[in-house]
Design a protein that fits this description.
Layout lengths: L2 H6 L4 E2 L5 H6 L8 H7 L1 H14 L3 E3 L7 H4 L8 H16 L4 E6 L14 H18 L3 E7 L2 H14 L5 E5 L13 H10 L4 E6 L3 H14 L5 E5 L4 E4 L2 E4 L3 H5 L2 H6 L2 E4 L7 H17 L2
Parallel strand pairs: 1-10, 2-3, 3-4, 4-5, 5-6, 6-7, 7-10
Antiparallel strand pairs: 8-9
Length: 296
């Protein structure tokens, strides 16, 4: 059964958690993006995928959050866009086999679009298209645009994804971290209305300032998009520095405690973002399983 059928039938899919922290623990140098290891140490990337699969994840994101040319150029990988994204999809597929769906992860460009920044809308579309086309060539099951804050940039990514793969499902999520809005001031309900008009398969919130803020954002999106599958992939709480390292305070039990409220709102893809670990995903998967068994 393909992912679109699963979502339309109301199934709940458990997604994976953070990637970068695990690669750093394995020796990824500070400042070097995980995408570099897709080519240099693909087995390290595959190991992270396997940890999440063993924890119960049914949706694995490729290691390509920063896989556009705009981001890869900063790491000296600008000429390897197609290779990085295609290989990342293959690594994820080889790790997952038929145990999980593979989502081609597309993050923001990391620069503002005109008139606030130098990058035109048309240039953004081309950058996203280059990445999306390579992910599709690598064999992903859907395209997954995430951590957006600017609606115009999201539109560019959607246009590119549709051009690259009109046949594939498309999920788009925004990060709400500034008084319930994105850093660009976009409200959840306005984002949802726009995404519904653009015909995305699924929509929702990821990353964000807190579990509570993500829950509120999803609730407000549900009010204007009652018939679209929702995605919730929050951070493991708010990060803070402790003895020089970043710490996230949300325990696996705390994140699992949000599963029922998310599902009650129509969330059909639930997982974790920054700070989340296989332990968090395991707790989420256990919660989803219990609710499925009890009809909750």
């Amino acid at each position: 059964m393909d992912i679109l059928t699963r979502l339309r039938e109301g199934a709940v899919l458990v997604a994976d958690g953070a990637m970068g922290t695990f690669l750093q623990a394995a020796g990824l140098p500070a400042g070097l993006p995980g995408e570099a290891w897709v080519l240099e140490r693909p087995e390290a990337v595959a190991d992270v995928h396997r940890l999440y699969l063993e924890a119960g994840a049914e949706l694995i994101l490729t290691c390509t959050f920063g896989g556009t040319r705009a981001r890869l150029e900063r790491a000296g990988l600008g000429e390897h866009v197609a290779e990085v994204n295609r290989r990342a999809a293959q690594v994820a597929r080889q790790a997952a086999g038929d145990r999980a769906f593979i989502a081609g992860d597309i993050g923001p460009l990391g620069e503002l679009l005109a008139p606030l920044g130098p990058r035109t809308y048309e240039e953004a579309v081309e950058l996203f298209f280059e990445q999306a086309a390579a992910l599709v060539e690598g064999g992903v099951d859907l395209l997954y645009v995430e951590t957006m804050s600017d609606l115009n940039e999201a539109r560019a990514a959607i246009e590119a994804a549709r051009r690259a793969a009109p046949h594939l499902p498309l999920s788009v999520t925004f990060s709400f971290d500034t008084r319930g809005r994105t850093s660009m001031g976009l409200r959840p309900e306005d984002a949802a209305r726009a995404l519904v008009d653009l015909g995305v398969t699924a929509l929702g919130a990821n990353c964000g300032r807190s579990l509570e803020m993500t829950l509120e954002a999803v609730q407000r999106m549900r009010q204007v998009a009652p018939d679209v599958p929702l995605v919730a992939k929050p951070n493991a709480g708010m990060p803070r520095l402790e003895e020089g390292r970043v710490v996230y305070d949300a325990t696996p039990e705390m994140m699992a405690g949000y599963v029922q409220p998310f599902l009650d709102l129509g969330v059909r893809v639930v997982g974790g973002c920054c700070g989340s670990t296989p332990a968090h995903i395991s707790a989420i998967a256990d919660a989803v399983r219990r609710m499925s068994q009890t009809g909750g």
